[in-house]
Amino acid sequence: MFQFISNWQNRRIIKRSDITRKEWDSAFAFLPLLRGYSEVEKQTLCELSILFLHRKVFEGANGLVVTRVMQLVIALQACIPILKLSLDDYNNWTSVIVYPTGFAPKRVVMDEYGVRHTVQSNLSGEAWLRGPVVLSWNDVEHAGVIDGHNLVIHEFSHKLDMRTGDANCFPALHADMNSAVWFEAFSKGFKDFEQRCSRGKNFGIDCYGSTSPAEFFAVLSEVFFERPEVIKQHYADIYQQLQLYYLQDPFKRLNDR
Question: For the domain that residue 33 is a member of, what is the CATH number?
């Protein structure tokens, strides 16, 4: 019954959307990545995006005015990983904060001797546990060009990873998935990737993914949706696990277009 009510409410929200055709066209023009999607998939992404905008609050930082088209560009990309999943996977947080360019937050960290230090790092995005997703618009507006780098997919895959707690490369797997197989594929792949990056071998996957298992999952999620052939070639077992988790096959989609 509750699912029926939820679906009815969702259909009502979608039907009442005031997003114009011009705004949709402008948003899609930012995202060559979506050209490989079927009309049904595009329609689903649009509907998910409407619901996403209904549930989330967009905030511009440093004087940035976040327009409707900017919101759509972010929402469409955020909904790519959950195209076959559920918008409920993004529950328990509400804000998307958008900076004009990169940002440099100050944080206090404790070293191995218990001494606290204030550090400041330049970032293009971050996802907080039970908190907002923070994005640099300068990076977002160039994210959907099929180069294997996608800031929005990266940060929102962190949010999926955080459904089970801290991001650790172990999202909430489906009931028919084998957690031991997932763990083995990603552990083996991460160790190999660390070694390759330490030797300076670049083969289309950002070595930022070697900094932690959580970043490995987020970086591979970017590549999975934009350059799936790279993962399929170098880490076929991981590709299979990502395919089972996301319930999508981007390699087939991009090669069938």
Answer: 1.10.472.150
